[in-house]
Structure prediction request, 112 residues.
Amino acid sequence: VQLQASGGGSVQAGGSLRLSCAVSGTIFSANRMGWYRQAPGKQRELVAEFTIGGTTNYGDFVKGRFTISRDNAKNTGYLQMNSLKPEDTAVYYCVLPQRGIWGQGTLVTVSS
Prediction:
């Protein structure tokens, strides 16, 4: 199973990015997925995830700015991030949490 995250980059505060996570080697539709992030010197934290019931759950800091989605036909998950802030700077990882499988991460840098 492989998770390939992409879409990170540098953006100014207030800007937007869309992260993608291409999943291979498994039946994507049968897996929950989520996004975590790790900022320099901080622990990894949940950004967004699909729950067991199929609903979505977001970290408290998201406050309506991010949206998680998935396209099972394309074996791809997404994280749309709007109104980015400098404190959103981190490496973002896509995850299959039930299986403990993590992608390699993609760096998001937000400048003020």
Remarks:
- The chain is about 0% helix and 50% strand.
- The mean pLDDT is 96.
